[in-house]
């Protein structure tokens, strides 16, 4: 099974906004609202940042937002901060195994 | 505070077996679906398996079906992954993850992971 497609890296300066894309197919991203995003700092466990395409769990900064258009989901981080530097993974539900499929990850560098 | 603590990882030869454990605390373990998610060194995340609250349903990614078995003991607040016929491509950090109540494929709490290395 192919992973969802994410850019390998993105970068931005403090205070700027960046967007990370996540492209799948009509069998996953495009077919369901079940898209999520995870943040992972080096050597740490992933942290859920967005679920249901655009919802934030309690405690996640409103600088993080999600959206979807067709087969592509996006994560936008506004007002970049140094602490945002991490790897970001998108994930989507699909009806056949594996039922949760992840993107390859995007390394965000805050310049 | 929700805590998930994995153990049982290590170095094993190809074809060997390992049993991973995940000790849960800080929440009512028996109320949640639980999953194992792995991450090969320097690679992305891969969902491996999950299990319903009462153990009546379980699902696996195709690459481990027939080799790995997920189980749980709600009395001990523990999740397990029995891994047999291990291959080099199973080398990864294995995370125990709790599912959100609203949808079982969102993972809102993760352990620190346990490293499994399959090598001769």
Would you write up a description of this structure?
- The complex is a heterodimer of chains A (111) and B (120).
- Chain A contains no helices and nine strands.
- By secondary structure, chain A is mainly beta.
- In chain A, the strands form two sheets. In chain A, strands 1, 3, 4, 7, 8 and 9 form a six-stranded mixed sheet that branches. In chain A, strands 2-6-5 form a three-stranded antiparallel sheet, with no helix packed on it.
- In chain A, a hairpin with a 2-residue loop joins strand 5 and strand 6.
- The mean pLDDT of chain B is 96.
- Classes of the chains: A mainly beta (111), B mainly beta (120).
- At the A-B interface, strand 7 and strand 8 of A face strand 5 and strand 10 of B.
What's the short version?
The complex is a heterodimer of chains A (111) and B (120). Chain A is mainly β. Chain A has strands at residues 9-12, 18-23, 35-40, 47-50, 64-69, 72-77, 86-93, 100-102, 106-110.
